[in-house]
Amino acid sequence: MPRLLPWRVRVRLSVEHWVDVEAETAGLAEAAAANLPNVLSVFGKSAVRADKLAEAQRSEGVQEGLD
């Protein structure tokens, strides 16, 4: 069985936001993000490996966390 990898996917809620999901590929990560509660749509080709992110790469104006 393939190993699940962490991905960060850009989605549209009532406010643009990033969510973290686990999936085998970027495409599957985007599909998983689309099924999360309150997600209106997913930005295509937005998935990036969450374990490869640097703090400096965060987008300005994108809200973090769904607390």
Structure, described:
By secondary structure, the chain is α+β, with helices and mostly antiparallel strands. The chain has one domain (5-53). It is built from one helix and four strands, in the order ββαββ. The chain has one helix at residues 26-34, and strands at 5-12, 16-23, 41-42, 48-49. β1 and β2 form a beta hairpin. The radius of gyration is 11 Å and the shape is globular. The mean pLDDT is 83.
List descriptors.
single chain; 67 residues; alpha+beta; four-stranded antiparallel β-sheet; 13% helix
The total count of strands amounts to 4
Number of domains: 1
Mean pLDDT across all residues, rounded? Answer: 83
Shape: globular
Structural class: alpha+beta
Order of helices and strands: EEHEE
Rg from C-alpha positions? Answer: 11 Å
C-alpha termini separation: 32 Å
Low-confidence stretches: none
Largest sheet: 4 strands, antiparallel
Number of helices: 1
Helical fraction equals 10-25%
Strand content: 25-35%
Outline of this structure?
The protein is 13% helix and 30% strand.
